[in-house]
Amino acid sequence: MPSDYTVKRTGAFWEADVSLGREKIATVGKGGGVKFLVRMNDGGKGFLLDPRVNGAIKPFSITAYEGQNVEGKIVLKIRNNLFSHKGNMYIMKTVPEGRLAKDHALGKKYICRLVNFPFNNPDDVDVHTSERLARHRGIKVGEMSGLGIIGHKVQLDEELADIGVPLSVASYLIYAAG
């Protein structure tokens, strides 16, 4: 059963509410420097999101730490639209197998699990493969749509449910903060 997250801007782009279905579950706020804090409404640890991946700020990249500082466990690392989770590689903003490229231009961005991809870690992907990422298609496991002002919506399949909050906020910060 898919999980439906909505991240909606409430002030500056770094200020947002996160909802799961109709229930508000977290808030996003400014952390120190270029970092963002996700505070869970249920008193959970929350997350710190940092646009630095391996020490450098890169487009379409972000690191999510469990807790409120960079000493926490890394729960999600998106590098050049790629991330790994439970031994699988995923790509954001791609066209799934069986869909036409024009579907991608209609405002939806898809999250796909890559099958037979030669890498298990985004840090290991070579430059040649990175340049050809747009050609890789996979099995759709989620989709994103909308701007943060009107509500950035993220629908995730069950296999990504345990990273749903940091993944939804990361996609909001990468694609929809405007």
Summarize the structure in words.
- The chain contains three helices and 14 strands.
- It has 178 residues and is mainly β.
- The protein has one domain (3-176).
- Strands 9-8-5-4-3-2-1-14-13-12-11-10 form a twelve-stranded antiparallel sheet, covered by helices on one side. Strands 6-7 form a two-stranded antiparallel ribbon.
- The radius of gyration is 15 Å and the shape is globular.
- The protein starts with a strand and ends with a helix.
- The model has no long low-confidence stretch (mean pLDDT 88).
Topology:
Layout lengths: L2 E7 L6 E5 L2 E8 L5 E5 L6 E4 L1 E2 L2 E2 L4 E5 L7 E5 L3 E4 L2 E7 L6 H4 L4 E6 L12 H5 L7 E7 L6 E5 L7 H13 L2
Task: Describe the sheet with the most strands.
Answer: 12 strands, antiparallel
Helix content: 10-25%
Rg from alpha-carbon coordinates: 15 Å
Mean pLDDT: 88
Our estimate of the beta-strand percent is 35-45%
Can you write the helix and strand succession as a string?
A: EEEEEEEEEEEHEHEEH
Separation, N- and C-terminal Cα atoms: 30 Å
Which keywords apply here?
mainly beta, 178 residues, single chain, two-stranded antiparallel sheet, 3 helices, 12% helix
